[in-house]
Structures are given as structure tokens and as C-alpha cells.
From TrEMBL:
Keywords tagged on the record: Pyridoxal phosphate
Protein name as annotated: Aminotransferase class V domain-containing protein
InterPro entries associated with the record: Aminotrans_V_dom, PyrdxlP-dep_Trfase, PyrdxlP-dep_Trfase_major
UniProt domain Aminotransferase class V: residue ranges: 86-270
Pfam families in UniProt: Aminotran_5
Lineage of producing organism: Eukaryota, Fungi, Dikarya, Ascomycota, Pezizomycotina
Secretion signal, residue range per the UniProt entry: none
């Protein structure tokens, strides 16, 4: 991998001659263990089965980011003031191309939680306004909703959902909730939902939910944390959500601290401040503060607002074009990556379920669960009776389900050098594994052996020594 050019450019010159070297000849990508050892920085003793939480990025992207950081430290003022804005626009354009959106509608924030906070804290809520969300919402987002409802007249309505659920039934519940709010004299102001929910890892019919919002005049906020680089989003802008955010560091192979925030032009006036409020804010109280004009001459008002939202390391944002180039040059492009990961999630999940003697969580609708997650039930039986039925051999008390999950995950980490997310979900323990280009079926088979051993030990009661 080439380094950034050594010569110090003028402030307005192009950023860098650095690019990821392309393959001289087109060859099919080699995924699995080869990809892991050649392009990623994992400890050889660690088995990375949980890409969904924090992502991972190739060594080439790491080196590019570090080279950017070196350039910034060498000439901080000209680079930060003049060069970074140029690079930032290139990154915005690259990310926007994956959303089918114009660059002017896309900005960067550190993570999806920041974008969700930005929307919820900018909107004006009146008496009777309701924020709707599903019970599968990411916990940090639910807490944000609850907080906003504490400090504004807004109220929230959680739609309880048990997965798997048929798409039609989910849509019907959504519509029923909106109609109920309207009949009671309220207004469904905003609905928040995911592209792919965190747990269980399942894809939602987000496009149809957007259309329902449009029919009922409800603002739609999509938490697409598991979106860009994961599922096809090239139709996002044409689908027409009001607000959308997605973490680039989870599935697009950028460093952590990088997310896109999409707001179509029609709604950009609703977003007046970044989180935190910073240089791009234009006060409505006066055209100037201490004699300094607050009116920007930049036609890209939305981009200007987010261009400098306090001093942070913006280099993760600047790696997006290089990440996309890596995905094209070394992985065959977005379609090839999705096909491999979706198939591995399906086949790996089925293999793991077969080894455990259980099943995967299947969606009930006709379309398959097209995403990079698989959810597998562990072979542990739980009783909800008090006291526990002594005749049910090997049955565990459901009251201890969450404690057993914690024990299982921590044992997997400290004894087997992996992390497998799990949850006690409606009477059973389910685990969620991620499929990624650096994994293959043998990794899922290995996980099966780990989980079988831990389940035997859980039935013997070993988890009790860990529980407090």
C-alpha cells in the first residue's frame, strides 16, 4: 500500500495521491481464512464471530487513516482548515452513491446514536404528539426517546413485537397503532424503526414502513445502524424516508466513529443544530453574534452545518472512498459481498443449528431473511413453573435465563477467545452470529463445539458460581 504523498501541497491542492493498489488482473475474491489473515489485523488466536457490534476494517484502511493522521500532525492548520473539507466532500459523494442520493443530502456524524439524537432534539413537539417505535428498538435510541418525552410535550408509544413475525402482521400492527393514536385525538408525529434490528438480527420491511408513514403523514426516522455495506440501499432516496442514519464502521469497513446521516432537502430546515451545537449553527434571534455574521454564503447549508461540529478526529469519515475501493478491488463489489455473507449466514446458521439439535429463527414471510446475521436457539430447556419441576431433567429455571446468558458469553470470551452475543428471548436462549468475508463454514462449526460444551456446563449448574 502506497503512503500519502510526502510533498506538502498548497492548501487547495488535491488531498493525496494515495489509493489502494488495484489488482492487475481481475480475479475472483478469496473469502474466509485467507481474507482474514491477509487483509485484517485479528489476533490469530481470536475468532471474530460478532462483526455486527463494532465492525472491523482492513489493514489497508488502517494504514490509510494513519497516513492521514500523520499529514494532519505535520501541518495541522492548512490541512484541517483547507484540505479536510475537500476530502470530506469526496467522502460524502462516495457514501451518497450507495444511497442513490445527492451529496448535499448526506453528512457524517460519529455514530447512528448521534444522528438519532440530532433528529429528536431538533424537532418541535406539541401536546398530543406521539413518537412511535417497536419493542425491538436499540436500547440507546429508546432512552433518547424517553428523555425527549421528559423534556418536551411529546409522548411515546412502544409497539410490542415478538419475532419472528410476518411482514403483513407487522405492518398491520403499525397501522393499527397510528389509527388508535388518531382516534384518541393525538398525532403520530414521528415513527422510528430499523433496517436490520440488533437482536434478534432480522431484517425489517423498512421500505413498506416508510410508505405507511407517508400515507399517514408521519415523519419516518430510520435507524439503519446495520445498513450501509450490509444491505442494498441504492433505492433509499427514491423510497423517501424523512431521516436516515447508518454506521459505516459496522459493515462498510471504515474505522470506528463514522456514520452517515441522510436528510432530504425538503427536511433540512428541520435540522437547525448539530449535537453539540457548533460553528455551523445560524441563530434565529439575530443575524450576528458580537458583530460577526452568522449567515453562511455556502449554498450547501446542510453540509456546512455538519462540516465542523466541534473538534474531533474526522479521519474515519475520510476513509469512505478507500473502503469502497477496497470492497471493489479485493472483494468484487457490493453485490458479491452481500451474496457471500447472506449465504454464509444462512448455511452457517443451519450448520450450527444442526450441530446443536435446534433451529434458526426463520422469518415467516415469503422472502428470506436477507442479511448478514443468523439467530440460533441453544439446546437449553427452561421452566416457568415455581417451584421448578424436579421431574423435568436438565430443565433450568427461566428466572435465571439472563444470568445464564451472561455466563455463557463471558465464558466464550475468556475461555475460547471469541464473543457470541446471546439473549434470553421469550423462554429460550438465542445467539446471534455475524457472517463476514473473513469467515467460513468451519468457523460456525467451531462455534457449535464451543456452544455445545457451554450448554452442558450450564445444565450442570456451573453458571451459579459466576452469578451474583
Amino acid at each position: 500500500m502506497d503512503s500519502l504523498e510526502d510533498a506538502n501541497p498548497s492548501p487547495s491542492s488535491s488531498i493525496s495521491s494515495h489509493t489502494i493498489a488495484s489488482n492487475d488482473s481481475i480475479q475472483p475474491p478469496v473469502f474466509g481464512q485467507t481474507m482474514r489473515t491477509q487483509h485484517f489485523a485479528f489476533d490469530p488466536a481470536y475468532t471474530p464471530l460478532n462483526h455486527g457490534s463494532y465492525g472491523a476494517f482492513p489493514v489497508a484502511i488502517r494504514d490509510y487513516q494513519r497516513a492521514l493522521q500523520d499529514r494532519i500532525e505535520a501541518r495541522s492548520d492548512p490541512y484541517i482548515r483547507f484540505t479536510i473539507p475537500e476530502l470530506l466532500n469526496k467522502s460524502r459523494a462516495a457514501a451518497a452513491s450507495l444511497l442513490g442520493a445527492p451529496m448535499d443530502d448526506v453528512v457524517f456524524v460519529p455514530n447512528a446514536t448521534t444522528a438519532v439524537n440530532t433528529v429528536l432534539r431538533n424537532l418541535q413537539f406539541a401536546e398530543g404528539d406521539t413518537i412511535i417505535y417497536f419493542s425491538s428498538i436499540y436500547p440507546a435510541c429508546e432512552k433518547t426517546v424517553r428523555y425527549v418525552c421528559e423534556i418536551t410535550p411529546a409522548v411515546c408509544r412502544c409497539i410490542e413485537v415478538t419475532f419472528p413475525i410476518d411482514d403483513a402482521d407487522l405492518i398491520a400492527l403499525f397501522c393499527k397503532t397510528i389509527r388508535h393514536i388518531q382516534r384518541k385525538g393525538g398525532k403520530a408525529k414521528l415513527a422510528m424503526f430499523d433496517t436490520v434490528i440488533t437482536f434478534p438480527g432480522l431484517r425489517l420491511p423498512w421500505e413498506r414502513l416508510v410508505k405507511v408513514c407517508q400515507e399517514f403523514d408521519v415523519l419516518s426516522l430510520i435507524d439503519g445502524a446495520h445498513g450501509i455495506g450490509h444491505i442494498d440501499l441504492t433505492h433509499l432516496a427514491s423510497t423517501g424516508p424523512d431521516f436516515f442514519t447508518s454506521n459505516c464502521y459496522k459493515w462498510l469497513y471504515t474505522p470506528r466513529g463514522c456514520a452517515i446521516f441522510y436528510v432530504p432537502f425538503r427536511n433540512q430546515d428541520l435540522i437547525r443544530s448539530t449535537m453539540p451545537t457548533s460553528h455551523g449553527f445560524h441563530t434565529s434571534l439575530n443575524d450576528s453574534i458580537d458583530g460577526i455574521s452568522t449567515i453562511t454564503q455556502d449554498r450547501d447549508r446542510f453540509g456546512d452545518l455538519f462540516k465542523w461540529a466541534a473538534t474531533v478526529d474526522q479521519t474515519p469519515y475520510l476513509t469512505v472512498p478507500e473502503a469502497i475501493k477496497f470492497r471493489n478491488d479485493f472483494c468484487g463489489g457490493e453485490t458479491v459481498i452481500r451474496e457471500y455473507c447472506f449465504n454464509l449466514a444462512r448455511d452457517g446458521g443451519q450448520l450450527l443449528a444442526s450441530l446443536l439439535g435446534t433451529e434458526t429463527m426463520q422469518t415467516l414471510q415469503d422472502r428470506p431473511n436477507q442479511c448478514c446475521f443468523t439467530n440460533v436457539r441453544l439446546p437449553l430447556r427452561f421452566s416457568h413453573q415455581e417451584p421448578l419441576d424436579k421431574n423435568a431433567k436438565g430443565t433450568l429455571d427461566a428466572a435465571n435465563g439472563a444470568k445464564i446468558v451472561t455466563w455463557l458469553m463471558e465464558c466464550a470470551m475468556y475461555e475460547y477467545n471469541t464473543w457470541i452475543p446471546g439473549k434470553f428471548y421469550y423462554g429460550a436462549i438465542w445467539v446471534r452470529l455475524s457472517a463476514q468475508i473473513y469467515l467460513e463454514l468451519k468457523d460456525f462449526a467451531w462455534a457449535g463445539g464451543v456452544l455445545k460444551d457451554l450448554c452442558v456446563r450450564a445444565q450442570r449448574g456451573e453458571w451459579r458460581s459466576h452469578a451474583t
